[in-house]
Amino acid sequence: MNIRRLWNGRTLGLPLGAMVFFVVASKRVLDRIATALWRGNLGALGSRSIIQVGVSFRYPGRVQIGERCSVASGCSFTSEHSDGSLELGTATIVNRDVTVDFTGGVVVERGVVISEGVTIYSHT
């Protein structure tokens, strides 16, 4: 294997590459820890779903997340009342900084991708 495929030969290339690898690897570990913590608090969290660090849920027991879902950091899921409900279908992706108010109930169907920075309100 040619070493030039992995390293550009410059002095800083290898240490910087190692630092990037460490940062990415540690973030993945933290995301897995966050997912494990939410698994115990949410109404349901399907297998192979991931909830990144920095996601917040109000009334987490009223939230059901399907299998193979991804919720990015900076997302906020809230309800004004304890009887609101949120369901994310299988293979749903919620990108960064999404805000969902599920006071009136929100159902996101299977395979939906919610773009970065979207705000969803439901009341009645």
Description:
The protein is elongated and about 60 Å long. The strands form 3 sheets. A 4-stranded parallel β-sheet has the order 1-4-7-10, with no helix packed on it. The protein has a 4-stranded parallel β-sheet with strand order 2-5-8-11. A 4-stranded parallel β-sheet has the order 3-6-9-12, with no helix packed on it. The protein is α/β, with parallel strands linked by helices and 124 residues long. Helix content is 22%, strand content 24%. The mean pLDDT is 89. The termini are far apart. The protein is built from 1 helix and 12 strands; from the N terminus they run H-E-E-E-E-E-E-E-E-E-E-E-E.
Assign an overall shape: elongated
The amount of beta strand, in percent, is: 15-25%
Mean pLDDT score = 89
Report the radius of gyration as a whole number of Å: 18 Å
Spatial order of strands in the largest sheet: 1-4-7-10
SSE pattern:
HEEEEEEEEEEEE
Structural class: alpha/beta
* pLDDT < 50 stretches: none
User: How many DSSP H or I helices?
Assistant: 1
Q: Describe the biggest sheet?
A: 4 strands, parallel
Fraction of residues in helix:
10-25%
Q: How many strand units?
A: 12
Give the termini separation: 62 Å
SSE layout and pairings?
Layout: H1 13-39, E1 44-45, E2 50-51, E3 56-57, E4 63-65, E5 70-71, E6 76-78, E7 86-88, E8 93-94, E9 99-101, E10 106-108, E11 113-114, E12 119-121
Parallel strand pairs: 1-4, 2-5, 3-6, 4-7, 5-8, 6-9, 7-10, 8-11, 9-12
